[in-house]
Each structure stands twice: as C-alpha cells, then as structure tokens.
C-alpha cells in the first residue's frame, strides 16, 4: 500500500523542461514512477524523450490532467514562479503536489498552503526532497537505489538525514519515506505523515526525524500519545547548534529556550518514543523495535 | 534579515504608520546635528539587533544638542549582549500616556499569520502571554483577506483597548499589515505602541524581520550590514559570497557535509561519539560541484581554530566523485595543508569517489567508512 504515493500514481512534472526537472524526471522514471506529463508554460505540444519513453509537455496543469489523468504533481520551478505553479496544481485538483523548490518566500508558501486547505490537494514541501515508496514510485529527488520496500515508514524535515537512515536500515526496507522539508511553514507535517502511517497496513514501525526550530516535534509527540499505536523511533538533529543562528534550513533556529533539540527529545521520550542520539543509534533502536515485534529485522 | 529599529521605522513611515521624527547618527557630531534639527528634547537610542537596550544603558535622554553629542559618545561602541552599537537613533523624546503592543508574525504551528495586540505594552510580551493571557488578543490572519479596517477594529475590540484609542490603533494595524505583506516580513512588532497625552498613537520602537527568500522582489539590499572582512563574521561573509551555508562555532573540528540536517547531525556526532567540539557548520548543498567542495575546504581550513576536518557526504543528488575531485583540487591549490582531513563518502558514486581519493594518495587525507568512526577519528586528530 504505502502512503500518499503508490505504483498507481500518475505523475506530472512542473518544470520538466528545465535542467533540474529533466535530470530528476529521468531518475524518477528509472525508479519505476509512472510519469505521464511535463508542464512548462509556453511549451505545450512538445515532447521530451527519456530513453524509449516519450513524455508529452503541456502548457498548463489543467490541460495535462485532462489529457493524462495525472493525480500527482512534482514542482521543480524557480522560487519566483512557485506560487503560481502550485496554485495551478491545486486548481487542477491533483491529489498530491510535491514542491521540491528551495527558497520559496514564506508568504507564498502560506498562500498556497491556505488555498490547498479548502481542497483535497495535499501539499508536501516546499524545500523538500519529496517522497518515495520504494519499488513503487518516487515523487522528488530521494535516491531510489538506497533500499527496497519494507515495513518502516519514515518522516523527516531533512533530505540527507532521510538518506542516511534509509541507508542504515537498507536491509530492512521502507514502505514510504516522506521528506516534509525544513522551511518554517510546510504543507504536510510530521503529524499528517504519522496519521497516514498509522492507517497503512504495510507500515509496522515509524522513524520520525526532526531538527531544531519550531515545535513540530513537540506537537508530533502529543499526537503520538493520543493516536499512534505503532512503535515510533525518533532522531533529532541540532544538539550542538548555538542559539539564534539559522543552521542551513530556514526553519532550523533555536530562539531563546524554544526549539532546542533537548526539549524535542524530552517531549518525544515522555510519550514513550525512543530517541537515538545519533543516526546509527536510531537505526539500532528501530532494529530492536522490529525484533521485539518478531518483524523482518529479527 | 533582522532590521535595526531605525530601518524598521523607515518601513513604518513608508506605509503610513506614525513614528517620532528622528535620524540615525554614526558619530557624536552627527548626533548633535540631528538633535539640533529636531528642535526639541531628544532621546539617544543604541542601534543593536537585540533586546534589553534600556537596562544596558543604551537608551539615554538628551535635552539638547550638546547632551545629545555627549550621550552619543557614551553609547556608540557600547557592547550590548555581544552586539556593538555602531549607530544611534536620535529621536524626538515622546512621553507615552499609555503603552500598547502590536505584532504580526508567522505562526509556524498553524502555518499562517498571527496578529497579536495587547493593552500591556512596554514589557516582555512573552511574560504577558504567560501570566495575563486575557490581556493579549491573538487572531489568525487569513492570508487571502489580510487585515482590512474592519478586521483591525475587531482586533482592537478583542484586546480591550480604550474606546477612544481604537480607531487610531486600527489605522496603525492596517499600516503594519501593509509592512508585513508588501515588504515580505516574517515579523513586524511594535512595543511599545504609545498613546500620547494629546491623543496620538505612535510606534515608539520597531522590530522587523524580512524574509531573505523574497529578496528577489524587493529593494532591501541597503538594509544589509556591510560584510565584515575579519574574524568569524568575515569567514561567514566570504562563505556566503561563494554560495556556501557556513556558521562559525567555537570548537576545533571543521565539518563539511551536504544537506542541513546531515551537517547538523554530523556536528552532534562529533560531540556525542567523538567527544570533540565542532568548529563550524558548513552545508555544500545538493548537487555540489568539485568547485563548490574546493571552496568549502578552503574556507574551513582558513579558520585558525580548526585542527582537523571532517567531510561527511551522503550522495543523493550530490555525486561523491565530484566531492572527491573537489578535495583533490583544493589540496592542489592550497599548497601545504597542516591539518588532517577525514572523509566519509556514501551514496551516489561513492566508490568512484573513494577511488579518486585513493589515486591521489594525499598524506593528510584519510578515508573512514562510517559516519560514527569518521567523527571519532576527526575528533581524536583534533585533540592531538
């Protein structure tokens, strides 16, 4: 089953004819994704060849959806065009819109997240690596060759930490890994992903990766206490981060006593989540959890 | 980017929010001239991007031009919580009859904007929120509708402001909303928002944070401090000019990695597993070229506190062979390198990357297979 993205997902790529869009479309195709269309304003009617696959290009999302039945959009357009591109995807009623673009103004993100709220469109990102359901489909830039399908669901603010944990647990495998992005405001949250994993029969246990800044991890902890019965193992990055400095991700900043890694770790541990101090320890904790359940890592 | 008070007030004035007349000065003589131009008692305010100026002695009354000069001399160069006052704002002294609080901010949890208005201005708003939450009105702002006159008026009602002040405060609130939206601000805060004895409502202080991501559609470059050329800030400015995300820290293990989360994690593992202290945060980003990697290594090695370097890369888009080529290039151009470089490569083209480093056989480069062992090795080498 996996969450949000399956082998039946029909994916269109906004910005497919750009350098990043072309490169990652090729990689998504290689990962088994069913890519049905590209969208670039003004370039409708063309097609781009990827090996023996010819992907048609449309001038707008609505047109592409009407012609191909696409239900997922992956957005690779530059920041100044992102708000317009995402609005188009929402208005065309795609089920999932994955915004890879880094550097989107926060006001624009707030606008498209608010617009999506009143619809059935789920936004993932911006400034995220997207998501992958190994063996089925990939919408974004997460490498498909790290690991295969398995019982772990993963949700993370960070792309490379997602890769690191997938690599550490590559012999076990993942149902879906969701990179929600490190911006102050994002569409899909840790909680949304936790809820989906809880419902997903293929997911046996969940890895939650957080980092300094905001209180998303604390809110996730409260949600876990109330709603999640599957075991959750967590990792939080940024224990050594100084106060008041942004550590790479726009959202990764400790303000006063708010947003520290320690506070997040304590909040998660207080609801029974085991928190690793390093990625490798986190992977060990996950193996213990699966072994205790008699799962595939025993 | 956080703005200085005088810059925030420039934006306030641009959008019709009343501020006291005043001028910024960087020398005592300029302060004297500014005070003379005011033709009224002045106040000298240290311009630093931190709170607690008043307690630190950074805000001083100056009844006339000569006292303005003397007080500016005292305040200029003052250190307030690690921030040096390089300029002062010379402003017409305003005696508040009442002090309110007004702010717009990005509510990360709700994923939208939040308006906050209170009758209790002039104090720490977090304390007000904690101890007397009933005197702080909080209202989410619909990004599509914004704050019009009616919404602003509702805010003033909810905050319980005096009846006869509501209309003027509402006008200020719509003006501040224009600052928020039209300038792409993440925070607009006025504390205190003063009501004078003659009934005017004026922003006595101002705090604005602009969204760097929106710089492409604004002319905000003039607000930026000139890049420092020395010390930690100098290193950070040089790194930024080369497109690198670098934060100087106070340890001795230089850290380079790809992706903010992995680099933050690497710092933690250096401390947790290696018992070392990271000298910096440096994210080369996704898909970094050999040139970017070479620039990163050059920046980190130019930090005099660095005793060893840890390169931790998990190639997603980033190709590990490009990272390795960058290391070899940098070592070729840097001449003699006095500190060991520990490298851990995994993911995209990792084997090709390791082969590049093997072939180069540089005496200062050591490859270590896992993140934990690499962090331990780098910390050990820094401690030698």
From TrEMBL, chain A:
Cite a single GO BP annotation: tricarboxylic acid cycle
EC number(s) on record? 6.2.1.5
Catalyses which reaction? GTP + succinate + CoA = succinyl-CoA + GDP + phosphate; succinate + ATP + CoA = succinyl-CoA + ADP + phosphate
Q: Which Pfam families match?
A: CoA_binding, Ligase_CoA
Kindly list the positions annotated as binding CoA: 17-20, 43, 100-102
Pathway assigned to this chain's UniProt record: Carbohydrate metabolism; tricarboxylic acid cycle; succinate from succinyl-CoA (ligase route): step 1/1
Looking at the UniProt record for this protein, which Gene Ontology cellular component terms does it annotate, in alphabetical order? cytosol; succinate-CoA ligase complex (ADP-forming)
Give start and end of each CoA-binding domain.
4-104
UniProt GO molecular function: nucleotide binding; succinate-CoA ligase (ADP-forming) activity; succinate-CoA ligase (GDP-forming) activity
Enzyme class at the top of the EC tree: ligase
Q: Where does substrate bind?
A: 163
**Which terms are listed as keywords in the entry?**
Ligase, Nucleotide-binding, Tricarboxylic acid cycle
Quote the PANTHER family the UniProt record gives. SUCCINATE--COA LIGASE [ADP_GDP-FORMING] SUBUNIT ALPHA, MITOCHONDRIAL, SUCCINYL-COA LIGASE SUBUNIT ALPHA
Its function? Answer: Succinyl-CoA synthetase functions in the citric acid cycle (TCA), coupling the hydrolysis of succinyl-CoA to the synthesis of either ATP or GTP and thus represents the only step of substrate-level phosphorylation in the TCA. The alpha subunit of the enzyme binds the substrates coenzyme A and phosphate, while succinate binding and nucleotide specificity is provided by the beta subunit.
The protein here is known as Succinate--CoA ligase [ADP-forming] subunit alpha
UniProtKB/TrEMBL annotation, chain B:
Q: Identify the residues that bind substrate.
A: 258, 316-318
GO annotation terms (biological process):
succinyl-CoA metabolic process; tricarboxylic acid cycle
SUPFAM superfamilies xrefs: Glutathione synthetase ATP-binding domain-like, Succinyl-CoA synthetase domains
Region listing for Disordered, in residue ranges: 50-69
Q: Where does ATP bind?
A: 45, 52-54, 91, 94, 99
Record flagged with keyword Ligase:
yes
ATP-grasp domain ranges (all copies): 9-219
Catalytic reaction list: GTP + succinate + CoA = succinyl-CoA + GDP + phosphate; succinate + ATP + CoA = succinyl-CoA + ADP + phosphate
Pfam families per the UniProt record, alphabetical: ATP-grasp_2 (PF08442), Ligase_CoA (PF00549)
**HAMAP family from the UniProt entry:** Succ_CoA_beta
NCBIfam families registered for this protein in UniProt? PRK00696.1 (NF001913), sucCoAbeta (TIGR01016)
> What does the function comment of this entry state?
Succinyl-CoA synthetase functions in the citric acid cycle (TCA), coupling the hydrolysis of succinyl-CoA to the synthesis of either ATP or GTP and thus represents the only step of substrate-level phosphorylation in the TCA. The beta subunit provides nucleotide specificity of the enzyme and binds the substrate succinate, while the binding sites for coenzyme A and phosphate are found in the alpha subunit.
**Do you know which PANTHER family this protein is assigned to?**
SUCCINATE--COA LIGASE [GDP-FORMING] SUBUNIT BETA, MITOCHONDRIAL (PTHR11815:SF10), SUCCINYL-COA SYNTHETASE BETA CHAIN (PTHR11815)
Family in the record: Belongs to the succinate/malate CoA ligase beta subunit family.
Q: What is this protein called?
A: Succinate--CoA ligase [ADP-forming] subunit beta
